[in-house]
Amino acid sequence: MKPIFKNETGITLIALIITIIILLILAGVTLSLVIGDNGLINNANTTKLNTEYAKVDEAINLEFADYTTKKNMEENYCRVFIEFLQQKEVVNEDNIINISKILGDKMSTGNGSGSSDVYKLEKVTEENEDADMQNIKYKLVYYDKNNNATEIGNIEENAKIVTIEDVLICENGTITGVNPNYLTEPVQGECVENKTINEKFEDIVIPESINGVTVTKIKEFALAGIRNLKSVYIPDTVTEIEGAAFVECISLETVAGMKNVSKIGQIVFNYCSSLKNIELPQNLIYLGEETFSNCTSLETIVIPDSITCITGRLFSNCTSLNNVVLPNALTKIYSGAFSNCTGIANIIIPKSVNYVSGGAFEGWTAEQTINCETTSEYANANWNSSWEQWNEDCNAVVVWEYKRTV
Fold first, then answer.
1. What residues does each domain of the chain span?
2. Burial 70-106 (b: 16+ CB within 10 A, else e)
3. Residue 177: what pLDDT?
């Protein structure tokens, strides 16, 4: 016969509860007074809830005091309160409060997600008599496990309406950088670091003028390393983009405008790994070395007739590049210009080219074709001597005296 085991702990606990209830009844306390809607247990839970509400409310008000102090100390501080909290990771992008972060410990409430068992700051924006200002009210609300809402408190502020003119730093018509108050990881100096811009400005439209001054140039490293920048529009007033202006903007997909840009410096879009297509301006006369190097999503590029030189490693490691149109006035292709561009099925080198450096097509495979409009004799006599040693670096099929069908 199998032994029978009893859950002595469970039986003891039940017996204890029954004993307490009997003693309370003998003392004249009714059962409803203990466990009813207005009973001792329910009142104790309500008191605990109110205590936790008060803790969160106090913590939010302390954060607001800290925010107000910072705002008053920094003349150009542009963040509103909710953005200040998001920067500190006290609230997430849905404005849900991180209880452990703000209190330093967990409570019995505020441990859920979505709209269940969470504390949330709900933002309501109202018009202000001053067109440059806005009234913002934040309601502190707790959503219980059944999604029932309890409003705990509120905070109000008057805030400046922030525009792209506030975000971009412009000196004498040159975009030199981004206001560090709008970066999650502010950086000093001209160094490339991973940082993010306020989500309202992930798509930047650079205005033609800032504070009445026409924007004509984008300085080196101006928008470099902003990992969540998705698109940028460059106005007709801009004529030059200096080196590394957008280097390592890994989420940058679209670059529009640039109609009157005549010079794009070195490594401007280097490591912009999400950039797929870009339309180069027709009056462009210079593309710096490695401008599009490591743009692994770039698919199509049409180089305007105004360009006569393909600089070193201009498109190196553009592994998705499959359509390249070289200008008829092109004269020189420098080292590594198209190295490891293994997605290009074929390319046409115009007859106008009088110099091709060794390694220009390094890493090309036997499945790729290089169509040369000139003769092999001309190439051997005039191009770099490394041209004759292509087979060491390039396995592509080379076709001489190529005739275009169109």
1. 44-160
2. ebeeeeeebbbbbbbbbbeebbeeebbbbbeebbeee
3. 94
